Amino acid sequence: MIAQYQDIDMSLILNILWLIFGGFFMAVGWVVFGVIMVLTIVGIPWFVAAMNMAHLSLLPFGREAVNREVLTGEEDIGTGPLGVIGNIIWFLFGGIWLALGHVIWAVALAVTIIGIPFAFQHLKLAALALAPIGKVVINKDHIPAARY
Questions:
Q1: Hey, where are the domains in the chain?
Q2: For 34-37, which contacts have Cβ atoms below 8 Å and span 24 or more sequence positions?
Q3: Using one digit for the tens of pLDDT, what is the confidence trace for 67-116?
Q4: What tens digit of pLDDT does each residue of 85-99 get?
Q5: How far is CA 88 from CA 16, 33, 46, 91, in A?
Q6: What DSSP line would sit under the chain, residue for residue?
């Protein structure tokens, strides 16, 4: 029970430091790209994915982005062929730029010893920036066991 509270405290401290070390700026970037997509009307599915990733980019410690198909055990529109097409479109219009922003923050933070854990988070988010469709953000303690 005490270990659980220590994990919450550590996640809180890391998330506060994360906001200072690029998390806030990258979350704003996700929101901006999401708003641009929703203004096109046809970009509403990308808006939803961008808001999920903005949430993760704002407070990443203690959370994880997982594939919805793994979480639910069923394929849906975002995890099937249309999701792949959606991720390709996202990659071309927003994903590459957000991934580049996360990589730049990662390189800048990796230079310092205290910034290395934050650099790893930025790299994880850079990979997610390339293909966010079909992902959902959950708390790490709610990750289901692998389905066989």
A1: 2-142
A2: 36/94, 37/93, 37/94
A3: 777 777 777 776 778 888 888 888 888 889 889 989 999 999 899 888 88
A4: 888 888 888 889 889
A5: 33, 15, 11, 5
A6: -HHHHHHHHHHHHHHHHHIIIIIHHHHHHHHHHHHHHHHTSTTHHHHHHHHHHHHHHHS-TTEEEEEHHHHHSS--TTTSHHHHHHHHHHIIIIIHHHHHHHHHHHHHHHTSSTTHHHHHHHHHHHHHHH--TTEEEEEGGGPPPPP-
